[in-house]
Design brief:
Blueprint (H helix, E strand, L loop, with lengths): L1 H7 L3 H17 L5 H17 L3 H21 L6 H24 L3 H18 L5 H17 L2 H19 L4 H14 L5 H15 L4 H13 L16
Helix pairs in contact: 1-2, 2-3, 3-4, 3-5, 4-5, 5-6, 5-7, 6-7, 7-8, 7-11, 8-9, 9-10
Length: 239
């Protein structure tokens, strides 16, 4: 619990020491709890990502993933569907983390691979509009754009929009944001007026003061080679 508190407060060095100590204790124990070990390794990956050490983050995420895959396989015939859903959710989250690291490292093909597999897992255990599903699909769309595959990016955003409309209603601000991104992708060539209109709509969306949404818009605008968000300030810690 103390390590979790340190992480939440941004005291990453302290969190790292405490989680590493816990891992050492588990490894010395005669009976190891694989689920706890997987969670601790995933936590280390998160810490190393936060401090900018992506190679180490990737290492610990992958170690966690392997333990989670084995635990999931071992529990297939356990008959506890709720527990299976919980394990699958955690595995999907770790795979999405790995995909995001690969995208940061500009290894787009690997990022797409992990996002795709993560979404397959998510479809088995989460609602279509779950925040993890939405963030993974958005990252997948951006990865497709970096790869130059605009059609797949548009298809992914279209799936997001469908899920959002069914759950939230067409007038919800998240639907408006996704529709704006779709419109931006569908603009052709040098449609300057259309791009400027999209930027104005994006600015309106960001007045909701959502730092996560601002970051996602910035990534999309970058791969679309459009600028114009410098005047928008979003307050709050990035999630």
């Amino acid at each position: 619990m103390k390590a979790n508190a340190c992480y939440a407060l941004g005291q990453f060095g302290d969190a790292l020491k405490l989680w590493k100590k816990s891992i050492c204790l588990i490894r010395k124990s005669k009976v190891q709890d694989n689920q706890v070990m997987a969670e601790l390794l995933n936590n280390l990956g998160c810490v190393y990502f936060e401090i900018g050490t992506e190679i180490k983050a990737l290492k610990y995420f992958k170690e966690s993933m392997q333990i989670q895959k084995k635990a999931l396989f071992d529990n297939v015939y356990g008959g506890n569907d709720s527990l299976q859903q919980h394990h699958l959710h955690r595995l999907a989250s770790t795979r999405a983390n790995i995909g995001y690291i690969y995208m940061r490292m500009k290894k787009t093909d690997r990022a797409i691979e992990y996002f795709d597999v993560s979404l397959l897992d998510q479809n088995l255990c989460l609602d279509a509009h779950h925040p993890l599903v939405m963030s993974t699909m958005e990252n997948l769309a951006i990865a497709y754009m970096r790869k130059g595959n605009k059609d797949s990016a548009i298809q992914t955003y279209s799936k997001m929009l469908t899920a959002q409309i069914e759950t939230l209603g067409a007038a919800h601000h998240e639907c408006v944001a996704t529709l704006t991104k779709l419109t931006l992708l569908q603009l052709k060539g040098r449609e300057k007026a259309g791009k400027n209109s999209c930027v104005r709509k994006i600015q309106d969306c960001l007045r909701k003061n959502d730092p996560c949404q601002k970051e996602r818009f910035e990534k999309l605008l970058k791969v679309c080679k459009v600028s114009g968000l410098k005047t928008i300030t979003v307050i709050g810690k990035r999630k």
